[in-house]
Write a structure and sequence with these properties.
This protein is mainly α. Helix 1 packs antiparallel against helix 2.
Amino acid sequence: MTAETDLLPLPSEFGHPSLQALGVVSQNYARACVSSATEALRAEVDRLLGINSGLCRTSNFHLIDAARWEERAKRAEARAERLEGALLHLRNHTSVNSHQIELIDTALHPTAAQEEGRE
């Protein structure tokens, strides 16, 4: 692609010397029209590429952030399982009174209201 727009050859009618100047003017005008339209389209493509680039960066950020939260959730779940094991061991293998058993059981099997923080 060249900087100058390629046009079809002028019709043979433009070969007459008096029309040659008109042919050059017509070609220049056609090139200017194409160039003007092309510039507007290039600007629009550049604008859309910028938007796309921004969306890709944002999307990648959210994917990375989601992966981090997923990893945190897995670690929290593993920790909860370890705590559950420790509480069960405490309840079943140590001397605890009924109040402590109740606290352990509540921690192991909370009610819906407790899970939502209403109690």
